[in-house]
Amino acid sequence: METPELITLEIDGQSVSVPAGTTIFEAAKAAGIEIPNLCYLKELGPYGACGVCVVEVENCPKMLRACSAKVAPGMVVHTKSEKALATRKLALELLMGDHDGDCQGPCKLNCPAHTDCQKYVKEIAEGRFADAVATIKETFPLPAAIGRVCPHPCEKACRRNLVEEPISIAQLKYFAADQVRKDGNEHPIKVAASTGKKVGIIGGGPAGLTAAFKLAQWGHAVTVYDQMPEMGGMLRYGIPEYRLPKAILKAETDAIAALGVTFVNDFKIGRDADFAKFRSWFDAVVVANGAWKSTAMRVKGEELQGVWGGIDFLRAVVTGEKPDIGERVAIVGGGNTAMDACRTAVRVGAKEVFVVYRRTRKEMPAEDIEITEAEEEGVKFKFLYAPDEILGKDGKVCGMRLQVMELGEPDERGRRKPVPVAGKFEEIALDSVIAAIGQRNDPEGFADLPQTPKGTIAADEGNFSTTLPGVFACGDTVNKGAGIAIGAIAQANEAALAVDAYLRGGEYKPVKPILSERELTEKDFADRPRIARVKMPQRPPEERRNDFKEVNLGLSPEAAQAEAKRCLECGCHDFEDCKLIRYANLLQADCKRLHGDYHPGFVEQKLVTIERNQRKCVLCNLCVRVCANEAKQGLLGLVGRGFKTVIKPEFQNPGATAVCKDCHLCADNCPTGALKVIG
Ligand code: SF4
Ligand code: SF4
Ligand code: SF4
Ligand code: FES
Description:
Elements: E1 6-11, E2 14-19, H1 24-30, E3 54-57, E4 64-65, E5 76-78, H2 82-97, H3 106-110, H4 117-125, H5 129-137, H6 143-149, H7 153-157, H8 169-183, E6 198-202, H9 206-217, E7 221-225, H10 234-237, H11 246-257, E8 262-264, H12 275-280, E9 284-287, E10 293-294, E11 307-309, H13 310-318, E12 328-332, H14 336-347, E13 352-357, H15 368-376, E14 380-383, E15 385-393, E16 396-410, E17 416-429, E18 432-435, E19 439-440, E20 471-473, H16 485-503, H17 541-544, H18 557-564, H19 579-586, E21 603-604, E22 610-613, H20 622-629, E23 636-639, E24 646-649, H21 665-669, E25 675-677
Parallel strand pairs: 1-5, 6-7, 6-9, 7-8, 9-20, 11-18, 12-13, 12-18, 13-14
Antiparallel strand pairs: 1-2, 3-4, 3-5, 10-19, 15-16, 16-17, 21-22, 22-25, 23-24
Helix pairs in contact: 4-5, 4-8, 4-18, 5-8, 6-8, 8-18, 9-16, 13-14
The protein binds iron/sulfur cluster (3 copies) and FE2/S2 (inorganic) cluster.
């Protein structure tokens, strides 16, 4: 046999010798150089449809498609030159401009921590509850607690809103956690071999615990220090028992300790050790000490006995202090802490409980369900009132003078501003006043750390590093201050990655991923059957207002599965393997830059178990060619001309699909999520 002639060329500075007739693509591959490609498959030979594999060849006036251009002696190829990358990026942007798919579900994108809601909802729908908990725990360690308290921004974005009501994502989350705890079948969590590095975390709330959970799994020795007698932070001391039973939270914090994390309670920086000394004990430190100070109302009479901060009152109840608030109590504020405070006041025996809020119910930041449940428990709402003065007698609260308000122009967040109505006031008799208008961090003991003008710790918004080497800070104590628990968890996940990178001698710089997202309206779901959201069973108000037992009774496995089955499965099944989005990220291609009209879009299933989604097809023709040449069937073809071209059964003949071998070769080779194996 004749030995083929060898051609020597240069690719990205490497000398490569390959047989004559080899494509540049294969030559690069032989040299270990990957050239992005969408429409190429070695077995099928060159095709040259997508343009993603372009390379620059010296002294060649045009860019060459590496999958079809052959090598030549002395050729000098650049696969990553500025020109090659720009042309490749343009090819990808052209393809993405006509690509109509959701890489990830809006639920996941709108969760601050990007918890994979779609995945665990599906696992619940399939009765795989332990898998669902494992999915949630890829992001954070407290599904039973967070499922109970989270104001669920995921549900606000849920596409099922366009049909009737969102999926009960948060309730499903805690259903799965409760069920798995009951069944005792949680998947064990793997802990990597010890790195020999020590991390100290200040604060045992959602942020500190999440950072500890992640860092322990990666092999670091973690100790969490907290000023309170038990771990959990605001979840334990700021959320009442009737919403989140302490025993459930304890089970989840115990599971973190079981990974080898050490907990040290009743420890306060500044009192038990100064920060510089604390730092010297560890290779890295995470400050996540939360926001434990109630914001003052700044009205006359605030110093009177009987005036409480919202979180101070809630904490006093949790720690068994039995605060004496008397019979008539007013809570000032409209957020969830105000709702927790008013409902707790009812439970500790107040006869008349008012919520004083300066706007109307519509503008209240508290969750609607919390307001409704408070009303059911007898709380009275005084809308469009603001505290003007707390009235006192013998040093104690005896009432409050309220300024009557009205709504003016919208503020920067679009909420109409409350403005005082000149000269209009009202007085109510009270025994105590609880100010639940906000909370802030306590900077005491952290003078070594840079602060923002707000008094919070200044940390990098991306990786939560501070100006002190090896010191990271996240959660309610940093930057913008107090927010929702899942927001603090999101920051802790980034901080944990940064700590891990630091301990391994590197630096973590988060990059915002490029994703394809669809814009849909009710019209897109007009044909969907309406299915009501499963209702959470609850204890009746007249019973629950007398004790701290949990209000919600939880979903049954059947109800949870039925609810989970309502999910529209918005995110793409192929996200992990999709070449299109991988290359778009690699080249930072802008999905929307060249967006115009879309190709005709439809989803159909005319092959045995292959669902074809034409909206995601980039017309690379691989499926057509693989069906004809590899499966030897030739069932698929390009139908239509120009912009109207689509992939359909050959000659639009549905009968042709009867001979489909169900080999899945088309789906396996599709570079995008346009072909899906179902069933
Ligand atoms: S096919 Fe790829 S780019 Fe398109 S939605 Fe699916 S994962 Fe995203
Ligand atoms: S329908 Fe399902 S996948 Fe879509 S946003 Fe809602 S929960 Fe997520
Ligand atoms: S469906 Fe066929 S033509 Fe469309 S992207 Fe997939 S393999 Fe290419
Ligand atoms: S044109 Fe070469 S891989 Fe598509």
